[in-house]
Design a protein that fits this description.
- The complex is a heterodimer of chains A (109) and B (119).
- Chain A is mainly beta and 109 residues long.
- In chain A, strands 2, 4, 5, 9, 10 and 11 form a six-stranded mixed sheet that branches. In chain A, strands 1-3-8-7-6 form a five-stranded antiparallel sheet, with no helix packed on it.
- Chain B is an all-beta fold.
- Chain B contains no helices and twelve strands.
- In chain B, the strands form two sheets. In chain B, strands 2, 4, 5, 6, 9, 10, 11 and 12 form an eight-stranded mixed sheet that branches.
- In chain B, β4 and β5 form a beta hairpin.
- The N and C termini of chain B lie far apart (37 Å).
- Classes of the chains: A mainly beta (109), B mainly beta (119).
- At the A-B interface, β5 of A face β9 and β11 of B.
């Protein structure tokens, strides 16, 4: 079966750095997305990785290792507004998007 | 980036009535649109995928006669919840992928969602 695992919840301190991990087992791979979703709102796109390595975009970076079926989202200089759920999603060989359950990130002052 | 709008933002209706939700791509051609449902504190659940001009493909367990999806143009898809019941109360979100000029989007762009409450 297809499976995406990410921690259910994480807590971090304002100004700190946090890494949210995602591991996947899917039938084929055509890319991995990270989305941010604030409570009561729709998801917003953060990043897309299809090749191994680190993609940096401001305070957010996303890393992919296809051989390990592993990705992480790194958030630096955390702000209170970063409190949200972070969703990992993988496109499989049929170009279906498989969603993780999301990681709820709680930022404390 | 590409923009997707959704209307209405929220709707309250009586049990047994039908509700139509519109999803529009504002600045790109949405060749594929997706409809999701999300219950409180749960992850997104894909309901169906629709390609412009074709019948929607429904996920297992989603009643196609209850959730009618129309994707008649490259900028508009509609979801109609027929004979809505309280258990249909949820957050419905559409997303789209497509093209704009020479740009082709891999990522899904989400609409803001529609909160449906059935009394």
């Amino acid at each position: 079966g297809q499976n995406i695992d990410q921690p259910t919840e994480m807590t971090a301190t304002e100004g700190a750095i946090v890494q949210i991990n995602c591991t996947y087992q899917t039938s084929g791979f055509n890319g991995l997305f990270w989305y941010q979703q604030h409570a009561g709102e729709a998801p917003t796109f953060l990043s897309y990785n299809v090749l191994d390595g680190l993609e940096e975009k401001g305070r957010f970076s996303s890393f992919l290792s296809r051989s390990k079926g592993y990705s992480y989202l790194l958030l630096k200089e955390l702000q209170m507004k970063d409190s949200a759920s972070y969703l990992c999603a993988v496109i499989d060989s049929n170009y279906q998007l498989i969603w993780g359950a999301g990681t709820k990130l709680i930022i404390k002052p | 980036g590409a923009v997707v709008s959704q209307h209405p933002s929220w709707v309250i209706c009586k049990s047994g009535t039908s509700v139509k939700i519109e999803c529009r791509s504002l600045d790109f051609q949405a060749t594929t649109m997706f409809w999701y449902r999300q219950f409180p504190k749960q992850s997104l659940m894909l309901m169906a995928t629709s390609n412009e001009g074709s019948k929607a493909t429904y996920e297992q367990g989603v009643e196609k006669d209850k959730f009618l999806i129309n994707h008649a143009s490259l900028t508009l898809s509609t979801l109609t919840v027929t004979s809505a019941h309280p258990e249909d109360s949820s957050f419905y979100i559409c997303s789209a992928t497509g093209t704009s000029g020479s740009n082709s989007y891999n990522e899904q762009f989400f609409g803001p969602g529609t909160r449906l409450t059935v009394l």
